[in-house]
């Protein structure tokens, strides 16, 4: 039966090939294919420009001089690049303090979210226990509740626990896979674990490994693609979070980098010994560039693995 | 775990141990605040310091619908924007993903570029850039010739302004498609090539293959992307409703009770929309090789 089908397909292909195809027709086909590729690349590159635009805009504006900012003839590249915007922004942001805060909280949050999240998702994906489906439905439910609905009581909770002005409210929710984002990342992990063969656990069980050991030594190392994806997302989301920090951090020496960037204008005005009265665009763009720089570097180094990992996570099955 | 428990019981215990961090998080950070906010929405806060409050019935809700002049416009505007943005985001990211999936060399780099706006600022940075006028500029530089010719024409004003507004929107929309493109490319890569080979052998064109293979095979991903877009736009700080709720509850007026009621109205709206989306799409989504 199968061979018959294969033979039929073979015949059909042979027929197609045998069809007289003039030289002209061949040329036309090749031309059309090349034209298609060319058009595709033109469209893709055009959109790549739009996607890269924020970065290009930010960086080119930040190195322009004040004079050039107002000169419409200087479109992109500054002829007299300056670093004065950066020098001022570094001081006003108290950049290295900010980096320490942001990097510290996001790295800790990302590592915790990834490891604990993997464990939770493994439980949802591979261990059968009563109530699992109900809990998972609840998980889906938590994703659709906007954080603004629970914002006020959460703030009260943090106040009761005396967690205001600490970084715990930034770190603990990711650790416990809380909220929209926690839920999405759990689903990524769960999908990944569901795709792995059951023989892995069976043989581990036969060899006497308990569930935790099976998870930690066998399943987790296999989940590298999912780990990378989750970790990057978690890092990016914690870094860029401009909701929770405003809720709990009152003292502006504790502010994350993103917060510092958002209040840059007032930071500049309070900046002691400042002779600057108004905020120039180049300084502000320098501040914005500095704010995303660490994240951008991390992304640039991991993007190759990141995009490859996306395919392997079985995210979309 | 050698307490003489049966294998099945051990498994159940382990199951709960594995998911316990999530259970704790949900109880502490989700369930309890959710209940408290529901209670708060039916109360009137009388003392902010000790947070004294009294039962107020439905007054907060009736105020929202009868007296609040800002809520309804903000809600309808957000819903209107969403009705426009959602299909645009989905169609745009699908087209980009299809173009991308056909590229052999350079796909990784292009995908990395398309994900860039997600990395540099889910909200904050993009917001600042828009304020600095980056939004107008990107579209203006690609569309300038068209607009200039329109400006000098008799249609001036009448047509240019709405076009410009749409272009600004489009830029924002394009920047929001990073995750969706990623999802779609992953989805496209997971469609077995043998399906297309079989179709082409039977004389199908690319166009037919798209409607009969790509779209049905991709439909679950489209649903996921739609839900993601919906949830994402409902939590976006650029969203006017979010802005309003924040303003009411932790802004100058500090009306925690009314903010909680607004939060609940908003949540119910989101919930209904998502249920509708899932319901409406249930006949359209095709699950190949559905497993139990």
Topology record:
The complex is a heterodimer of chains A (317) and B (292).
Chain A: H1 2-18, H2 23-62, H3 66-69, H4 84-93, H5 95-126, H6 132-144, H7 147-160, H8 168-175, H9 179-194, H10 199-206, H11 211-222, H12 224-240, H13 244-248, H14 257-262, H15 264-270, H16 281-312
Chain B: H1 7-41, E1 43-47, E2 52-55, H2 59-67, H3 71-101, H4 107-114, H5 116-120, H6 124-131, H7 134-152, H8 160-175, H9 178-189, H10 193-201, H11 206-235, H12 240-250, H13 256-281
Antiparallel strand pairs in B: 1-2
Describe this structure in words.
The complex is a heterodimer of chains A (317) and B (292). Chain A is an all-alpha fold. Helix content of chain A is 76%, strand content 0%. Chain B is mainly alpha-helical and 292 residues long. The radius of gyration of chain B is 25 Å and the shape is globular. Classes of the chains: A mainly alpha (317), B mainly alpha (292).
What structural category do the secondary elements of chain A indicate? mainly alpha
What is the CATH third-level topology name of the domain at 95-256 and 286-312 in chain A? Answer: MetI-like fold
Name of the CATH class of the domain at 95-256 and 286-312 in chain A? Mainly Alpha
Helical proportion of chain B, percent range: over 70%
Rg for CA atoms of chain A: 27 Å
Q: Strand sequence of the main sheet of chain B, in spatial order? A: 1-2
CATH superfamily of the domain at 95-256 and 286-312 in chain A: MetI-like
Tell me the count of domains of chain B: 1
Question: Mind telling me the C-alpha Rg of chain B?
Answer: 25 Å
Contiguous uncertain segments of 5+ residues of chain B: 143-156
Could you say which structural class the secondary elements and strand pairing of chain B correspond to? mainly alpha
User: How much strand of chain A?
Assistant: under 5%
What is the ordering of alpha helices and beta strands of chain B? HEEHHHHHHHHHHHH
Q: Report the β-strand fraction of chain B as a percent range.
A: under 5%
Number of strands of chain A: 0
Number of strands of chain B: 2
């Amino acid at each position: 039966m199968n061979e018959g089908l294969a033979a039929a397909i073979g015949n059909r292909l042979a027929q197609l090939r045998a069809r007289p195809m003039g030289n002209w027709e061949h040329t036309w086909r090749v031309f059309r294919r090349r034209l298609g590729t060319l058009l595709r690349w033109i469209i893709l590159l055009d959109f790549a420009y739009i996607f890269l635009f924020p970065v290009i805009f930010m960086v080119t504006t930040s190195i322009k001089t004040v004079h050039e900012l107002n000169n419409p003839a200087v479109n992109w590249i500054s002829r007299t690049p300056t670093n004065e915007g950066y020098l001022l922004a570094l001081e006003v942001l108290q950049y290295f303090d900010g980096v320490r805060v942001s990097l510290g909280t996001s790295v800790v949050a990302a590592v915790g979210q990834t490891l604990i999240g993997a464990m939770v998702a493994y439980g949802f994906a591979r261990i059968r226990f009563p109530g699992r489906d109900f809990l998972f439905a609840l998980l889906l439910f938590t994703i659709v509740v906007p954080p603004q609905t629970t914002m006020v009581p959460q703030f009260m909770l943090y106040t009761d626990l005396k967690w205001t002005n600490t970084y715990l409210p930034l770190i603990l929710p990711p650790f416990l896979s809380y909220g929209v984002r926690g839920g999405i990342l759990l689903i990524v992990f769960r999908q990944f674990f569901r795709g792995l063969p059951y023989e892995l656990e069976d043989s581990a069980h036969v060899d006497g490994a308990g569930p935790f050991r099976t998870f930690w030594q066998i399943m987790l190392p296999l989940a590298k693609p999912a780990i990378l994806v989750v970790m990057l997302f978690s890092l990016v989301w914690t870094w860029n979070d401009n909701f929770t920090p405003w809720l709990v951090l009152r003292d502006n020496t504790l502010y994350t980098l993103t917060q510092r960037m958002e209040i840059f204008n007032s930071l500049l005005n309070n900046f002691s010994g400042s002779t600057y009265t108004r905020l120039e665009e180049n300084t502000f763009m320098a501040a914005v560039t500095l704010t995303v720089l660490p994240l951008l570097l991390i992304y640039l180094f991991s993007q190759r693995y990141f995009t490859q990992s996306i395919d392997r996570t079985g995210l979309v099955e | 775990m050698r307490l003489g428990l049966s294998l099945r019981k051990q498994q159940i215990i382990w199951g709960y141990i594995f998911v316990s961090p999530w259970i704790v998080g949900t109880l502490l950070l989700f369930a309890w605040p959710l209940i408290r906010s529901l209670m708060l929405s039916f109360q009137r806060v009388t003392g902010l310091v000790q947070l004294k409050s009294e039962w107020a019935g439905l007054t907060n809700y009736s105020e929202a619908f009868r007296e609040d002049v800002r809520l309804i416009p903000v809600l309808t505007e957000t819903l209107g924007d969403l009705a426009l943005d959602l299909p645009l985001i989905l169609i745009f990211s699908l087209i980009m993903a299809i173009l991308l999936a056909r590229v052999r060399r350079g796909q990784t780099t292009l995908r990395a570029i398309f994900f860039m706006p997600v990395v540099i600022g889910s909200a904050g940075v993009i917001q600042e850039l828009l304020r600095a006028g980056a939004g107008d500029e990107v579209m203006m530089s690609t569309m300038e010739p068209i607009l200039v010719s329109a400006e000098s024409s008799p249609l001036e004003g009448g047509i240019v302004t709405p076009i410009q507004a749409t272009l600004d929107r489009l830029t924002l929309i394009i920047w929001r498609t990073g995750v969706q493109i990623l999802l779609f490319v992953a989805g496209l890569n997971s469609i077995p090539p043998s399906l297309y080979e079989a179709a082409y052998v039977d004389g199908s064109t690319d166009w037919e293959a798209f409607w009969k293979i790509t779209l049905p095979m991709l439909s679950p991903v489209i649903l996921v992307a739609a839900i993601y877009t919906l949830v994402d736009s409902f939590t976006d700080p650029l969203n006017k409703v979010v802005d309003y709720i924040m303003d009411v509850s932790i802004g100058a007026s500090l009306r925690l009770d009314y903010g909680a009621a607004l939060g609940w109205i908003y949540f119910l709206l989101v919930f209904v929309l998502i249920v509708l989306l899932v319901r409406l799409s249930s006949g359209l989504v095709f699950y190949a090789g559905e497993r139990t």
